[in-house]
Amino acid sequence: MSPIFDKLFNKNGPRPAPAQAFDALFAQAMAAVAARNLERALELYDQAIAADPSRAEGHYKRANVLKDLGELAAAMAAYDRAIALNPGYSQAYCNRGSVQHNLGRTGDALASYDRAIEIAPSDAFAYYNRALLLQELGRWDEALVSYDAALAIDPAYADAHYNRALCLLFQGRFEPGWIAYEWRWKNAQRLGIGRHRTFKQPLWLGKESIADRRLLLHSEAGLGDTVQFCRYATLCAARGATVILEVPEPLLDLLAGLEGVSQIVAHGSPLPFFDFHCPLMSLPHALQTTVESIPAPHKYLHTDPQRVAQWHRTLGGRTRPRIGLAWSGNPDNPIDRRRSIPLADWAAHLPPEFQYFCLQTQVREADAEALDASESIFRFADDALDFASTAALCECMDLIVTIDTSIAHLAGALGRPTWVLLPEPPDWRWMRGRLDSPWYPTLKLYRQSSPGRWEDVLGQVADDLRGAF
After folding, report:
1. pLDDT in tens, 244-263
2. Which residues lie closer than 8 Å to 200 by C-beta, 6 or more apart?
3. Hey, is 344 helix, strand or coil?
C-alpha cells in the first residue's frame, strides 16, 4: 500500500478496502490534474490502479495524463486497458482515437471514433474529432457531415463552427464559409489565430454605411494573413471610408504605401479616433466576397525603389537566372510539420544551372548544415532581411519558389512569378484541385499527390525550372 494511506487513514487501524483506497487516491489525482501537476497526478493514478486494477476509469484517467505529457505509446496502452475492462467506454475510444491520430494511425483513429459514436451517438466531441481527422485526410465532404452532426447535438460548439468554416472555404462555398468563420473569436487564443479585440466603437461587418466615417482595420493572425487581406483596404476606401490600418511592426514599412490607406499604425501604438472597426479577415464577409469577386489585381504592394536598387548593386551582374527559395515556415504553426520541407531533400533536386537565394530570415538548425554545404544557395545575414528588404529582394528574382508561408503571400502581392509547393491537404485558401490561385494571378500551385509525398513535387519543380528558362 502507498504511504499516502498514512494521511488518509489511521495507520494503526485496519487497512482500507480496495474500493476505499481507489476512491481516495482517485480524488487526489483529479485534484492534481486540476492544479496541472501532471507528474503528481500520474503517481496517484498509478497508486489507485495498484489498489484496485479492475476500475476502468483509473486506467482511462491515467491515459489522459499520459496523453497530456506526450507519452503517446503509454497512453495507448492505458486506453486499451480501460476499454478491455469496459468495452462500452465511449470516452476511452474517443480519446484513444486522438492518440492514434497523433501517431499517424489514421485508419485506427477513424475506427475508434466510429466506435465511440456507435456507443454514444449524442457525443458531439466524438463527431468533432472524427471531422478533424477526415479534414486532415482531405475528405472534406465527409468532414462536413461530421461537423454538422456535432453541431446538431451542440449548436454552440465554437470549434466545430470554426473548422466547418475552413471546410466550406476550401470548397469555395464562401457565403456560408465567411459567416461560420466569425465563430473563430469564441476560442481565438487557443486556436492560435490571434487575440479577440474589442473596442467601444462598433464592429463593422458591411451593414452600416462607412461613407465619411473613419474605419480601423486591424490585423489578427500571421504576417501572411495580413499581407493577403490588407488588399480590402482599397475597397473600403472606395465606399468613402477614411481607412486606418493597424499591422504588426515588421510590416509597417512594406504596407505604408498601400492604396486606400489614410493612416498606418504599428500594433501596440496609440490608436487615432475611429468610428468603426473590422478585423482584416472579417472583410471578405463584410464585403460579401465570392470566388468570382475576390479583389485580385496583378499586384497591390509596392517596394521602395531605393531598396531594390541597393539589392541590384549587392547582387551584381546577372549571370544566371535568379531563383528565390523559402522551404520552411513558422515552426509554431499547426500545419508546419506538413508544409515545411527539409532543405537537404530540396537541395538534391535543384538544377545546378541557376542561382538560388534564401529568402528566409531564419534557418533551422536541421537545415543549417545543408545550407552551408550548398554551393548554389546564397544566404544573406539575418539582419539584412526585414520584411521590406525581403520584398525588395523578391523584385530582383526571376522566380520565387516557396512553400505555403508568408513569402508566398508577399511574392503574390508584389505580382512576382511564384511557384508554391502545397502539402496534402493544403490550407483552405488554396482550395481544391486548382493549379492557380484566385487570390494571386502570378502564382502557380504544385500539390502533393498524397500526404507527406514531396518527391514527385520536387521532381516536377526541377523539370519545370529547366523548361522555364
Report:
1. 999 999 999 999 989 999 99
2. none
3. helix
pTM of the model: 0.89
Q: What is the 3-state secondary structure (H, E, C) of 211-260?
A: CCCEEEEECCCCHHHHHHHCCHHHHHHHCCCEEEEEECHHHHHHHCCCCC
What's the CA gap between 233 and 252, in Å, rounded?
A: 15
From CA 172, how far away is CA 161, in angstroms rounded?
A: 17
* 179: Cβ contacts below 8 Å, ≥ 6 apart: 165, 285
Residue 328 contacts by C-beta under 8 Å, 6 or more apart in sequence? 336, 340, 341, 343, 360, 363, 364, 367, 403, 405
Q: What is the 3-state secondary structure (H, E, C) of 189-223?
A: HHHCCCCCCCCCCCECCCCCCCCCCEEEEECCCCH
Among residues 355, 357, 406, 396, the alpha carbon closest in space to that of 380 is found at 357
C-alpha cell at 27: 480524488
What does the pLDDT look like over 183-202, one tens digit per residue? 999 887 777 677 788 899 99
Backbone φ and ψ for 327, nearest 5 degrees, come out as -115, -5
Q: How many contiguous H segments (helices) and E segments (strands) does the chain have?
A: 23, 10
Question: How far apart, in whole angstroms, are the C-alpha atoms of residue 241 and residue 243?
Answer: 6
CA distance 353 to 187: 49
For 28, phi and psi rounded to 5 degrees? -60, -40
pLDDT digits (tens, 9 = 90+) for 273-292: 999 999 999 999 999 999 99
